[in-house]
Amino acid sequence: MTLIKQNASENRRRALRLQCKVQNYDWGLKGSQSEVGRLYALQSNELLDEETPYAELWIGTHGSGPSYVLLPGDINDDYSNNCTDVRAQPFGIMLLKDWLCKNPYALGEKVVRRWGTDLPFLFKVLSVSKALSIQAHPDKKLAKQLHQLQPNIYKDANHKPEMALAISSFEALCGFVSPQEMKCVIEDVPELHSLLGESVAKVLISIALCHLNKEVAKVALRAAFTAIMAASEDEIKAVLYQIIFRLLNERQERTLSKKEQLVLRLAEQYPGDVGVLSAFFLNYVRLSPGEALYLDANEPHAYIAGECVECMATSDNVVRAGLTTKYRDTQTLCAMLSYKQGRPQVLSGVPVYPYTKRYSPPFEEFEVDASIVPTGHSLSLPANCGPSVLLVLEGCGTMYQVFGSNKHVTEVKRGDTYFIPAGIKLDIVSDSGGNPEVDALHLYRAGVNSDIFST
């Protein structure tokens, strides 16, 4: 049974330019130092305030930062198969979410069946100056419970798996360290023993030595992490003082480990915060541009520094317990975590088309294609069965859109974002725009995970 009513709009299917929302969280890079700020300034024609942090650019339909569609001036006109420049002055503007409700054909039949008339994913650009909170995102069951109990804090009932794809050197804490590394932490950071208790400390060491049952290991790790996170403010400050004092002295005689250096950085950013101690428990990951990290529900993490594009299920649910001035829900965080141990998987992308790599985490809501098209070359992207959004991060070019016998063309440039309806084939030509310093067109396209269309 077809859920989508056919209408004349399908014969005029085209990409639509978006106006996106910027978030000014205090951890963001400030002014023109921020990629988010620079992109937003290009998109909005607003001047940047050099003292304001520009942390996130949201591309999607979530109510906390919805995108608007800029409707072309000829959207209601009949037109022929001739190419039409859709960068014309918009004759109207409306929420992308409202436009999708009126034009569900743009989502594709399978997406409407599964998620209704809304985008199942949210795409972002992040510019991180200092560490984000120690946090995790709830699974669907917990998200519904938290939203019902505290809707002012947990604003929707959806889960939030996510993926960060580095566009600069990018640092993060992600998942619990292996049993062997946990053993080293217990042995090398004796100050933690007063919070853990000697019995818990001994069990954590024995897990690495005796290869205990995974469930036993989870119970011990949960007890240890909860003991740290639930300690009193005075206890945390006292232990942090001891650790920092020791590391500063030892720095005069030896090179500190990367994790120890990170702990000192976090202690400067968030003095006396329990999140500094939690860093000992989590994997420290450094991504190069083009590498990605994905996070399932109930996995602890914190982004530390750098810039990335990020994609996730459409949700803004975050359970925090450290490195933040926002609401902390320590009990919920410690209870919800999976307590899996080991290094997270880093994705390098799989080539799918010339100049294009695909990043497909094991989540049905989203995947991301990254394209770097040298000046003078072209890229052909087959039609997707579902919706997508396109971000022009660098360079400029010409985008030819084909749907059936209809064709449209628009010039694209750095800072542009577009909503791409299902069924549109894209042919994109990279050019320098007369600027000899421009050597490639950098595009990021987020859409529904293609695996769902093969089942």
UniProtKB/TrEMBL annotation:
<dbReference type="GO" id="GO:0008270">
    <property type="term" value="F:zinc ion binding"/>
</dbReference>
<dbReference type="GO" id="GO:0005975">
    <property type="term" value="P:carbohydrate metabolic process"/>
</dbReference>
<dbReference type="InterPro" id="IPR016305">
    <property type="entry name" value="Mannose-6-P_Isomerase"/>
</dbReference>
<keyword id="KW-0413">Isomerase</keyword>
<dbReference type="GO" id="GO:0009298">
    <property type="term" value="P:GDP-mannose biosynthetic process"/>
</dbReference>
<comment type="pathway">
    <text>Nucleotide-sugar biosynthesis; GDP-alpha-D-mannose biosynthesis; alpha-D-mannose 1-phosphate from D-fructose 6-phosphate: step 1/2.</text>
</comment>
<feature type="binding site">
    <location>
        <position position="301"/>
    </location>
    <ligand>
        <name>Zn(2+)</name>
    </ligand>
</feature>
<dbReference type="Pfam" id="PF20511">
    <property type="entry name" value="PMI_typeI_cat"/>
</dbReference>
<feature type="active site">
    <location>
        <position position="320"/>
    </location>
</feature>
<dbReference type="InterPro" id="IPR014710">
    <property type="entry name" value="RmlC-like_jellyroll"/>
</dbReference>
<keyword id="KW-0862">Zinc</keyword>
<dbReference type="InterPro" id="IPR046458">
    <property type="entry name" value="PMI_typeI_hel"/>
</dbReference>
<feature type="binding site">
    <location>
        <position position="137"/>
    </location>
    <ligand>
        <name>Zn(2+)</name>
    </ligand>
</feature>
<dbReference type="InterPro" id="IPR011051">
    <property type="entry name" value="RmlC_Cupin_sf"/>
</dbReference>
<dbReference type="InterPro" id="IPR046457">
    <property type="entry name" value="PMI_typeI_cat"/>
</dbReference>
<feature type="domain" description="Phosphomannose isomerase type I catalytic">
    <location>
        <begin position="16"/>
        <end position="176"/>
    </location>
</feature>
<feature type="binding site">
    <location>
        <position position="135"/>
    </location>
    <ligand>
        <name>Zn(2+)</name>
    </ligand>
</feature>
<dbReference type="GO" id="GO:0005829">
    <property type="term" value="C:cytosol"/>
</dbReference>
<dbReference type="Pfam" id="PF20512">
    <property type="entry name" value="PMI_typeI_hel"/>
</dbReference>
<feature type="domain" description="Phosphomannose isomerase type I helical insertion">
    <location>
        <begin position="208"/>
        <end position="282"/>
    </location>
</feature>
<dbReference type="GO" id="GO:0004476">
    <property type="term" value="F:mannose-6-phosphate isomerase activity"/>
</dbReference>
<comment type="similarity">
    <text>Belongs to the mannose-6-phosphate isomerase type 1 family.</text>
</comment>
<feature type="binding site">
    <location>
        <position position="162"/>
    </location>
    <ligand>
        <name>Zn(2+)</name>
    </ligand>
</feature>
<dbReference type="InterPro" id="IPR018050">
    <property type="entry name" value="Pmannose_isomerase-type1_CS"/>
</dbReference>
<dbReference type="InterPro" id="IPR001250">
    <property type="entry name" value="Man6P_Isoase-1"/>
</dbReference>
<protein>
    <recommendedName>
        <fullName>mannose-6-phosphate isomerase</fullName>
        <ecNumber>5.3.1.8</ecNumber>
    </recommendedName>
</protein>
<keyword id="KW-0479">Metal-binding</keyword>
